[in-house]
């Protein structure tokens, strides 16, 4: 249907575009060369059929769909458990000390992430299944401004 040089030029152009511009380009090529068939565009050019169909619909109705990338992925544990941050602060309030040289705003603590998990279950009424693993708890503590000190042996 199309020559290989034309195919490679069209595919290269599509690779360089992103989002709505890419879909608009794909829809234009599909309408011009493949009679508006997303399946033919998928077969001949290797494009995602759903993206081509969305581009064709955007072109037909004149409405551009927005990509909501920040809503993708897993939500942070603090968003799932809103009172977790205040409970952690309440638990670690007495066990923290400031940086001796006052170069960083972090509070240093000798409590481990595993100890924080155990204390949340015992003292604050959380269940072990709703809390994250030890490594994630360490990341949460770092985000909240705590730095864990290694225990001296």
Describe the protein's topology.
Elements: H1 4-16, H2 19-33, H3 38-45, H4 49-61, H5 77-80, H6 84-92, E1 96-98, E2 107-109, H7 113-124, H8 134-143, E3 146-148
Parallel strand pairs: 2-3
Antiparallel strand pairs: 1-2
Quick rundown:
The chain is built from eight helices and three strands, in the order H-H-H-H-H-H-E-E-H-H-E. It has helices spanning 4-16, 19-33, 38-45, 49-61, 77-80, 84-92, 113-124, 134-143, and strands at residues 96-98, 107-109, 146-148. A three-stranded mixed beta sheet has the order 1-2-3.
Could you explain the architecture of this structure?
This protein is mostly helical. It has 2 domains: 4-61; 77-148, no CATH class. Helices cover 55% and strands 6% of the residues. The chain contains 8 helices and 3 strands. The protein has helices spanning 4-16, 19-33, 38-45, 49-61, 77-80, 84-92, 113-124, 134-143; strands at residues 96-98, 107-109, 146-148. It has a 3-stranded mixed beta sheet with strand order 1-2-3. Helix 3 (38-45) packs across helix 4 and helix 7 (113-124) packs across helix 8 (134-143). The longest helix has 15 residues, at 19-33. It starts with a helix and ends in a 5-residue tail after the last strand. The model has no long low-confidence stretch (mean pLDDT 86).
Main traits of this protein?
single chain, 153 residues, mainly alpha, three-stranded mixed β-sheet, 3 strands, elongated
Number of helices: 8
Q: Which percent bin holds the helix content?
A: 40-55%
Largest sheet features: 3 strands, mixed
Structural class assignment: mainly alpha
Averaging pLDDT over every residue, what do you get?
86
Low-confidence stretches: none
* Number of DSSP-assigned strands: 3
Please provide the ordered H/E string of secondary-structure elements. HHHHHHEEHHE
Distance between the termini: 74 Å
- Could you say how many structural domains there are in total? 2
* Oligomer state of the chains in this structure: single chain
Radius of gyration: 27 Å
As a percent range, the share of strand residues is: 5-15%
Shape: elongated
Q: Identify the strand order in the major beta sheet.
A: 1-2-3
